Amino acid sequence: MAVTACLTWMQEKHLKTYFGEEQFSLLYKASVHGFSREKLLDRCSHQGSILIVIYNENHILGAYMPEGYLGELDISITLFAFQETEISKCEIGPLNPCLLFGGNTFNSQFIISLEKKAVATSVTTMEKLGLPHRCMPFKECEVFRCEDLLDKRRMDGIIELKESLMSAIRTYKPYGGLVHQIQILLLGPIGAGKSSFFNAVKSVFRGHVTNQALVGSDITGVSEKYRRYVVRDGKGGNPLPFILCDLPGLSEEEGRLCLDDILSVLKGHVADRYQFNSMNPVKPGHGDYICYPLLKDRIHCVAFVFSAYSVHCLSDEMVEKIKRIRKELIKCGMVQVVLLTHVDTLDLITKGDLTDIYKCVPVKLKLEELHREFGFPLSDIFAVSNYSSEWELEPVKDVLILSALRQMLWAADDFLEDLPLEETNRCV
Question: Could you point out which of 7, 36, 162, 195 has its C-alpha 20 to 30 Å from the C-alpha of 83?
Answer without folding.
Answer: 36
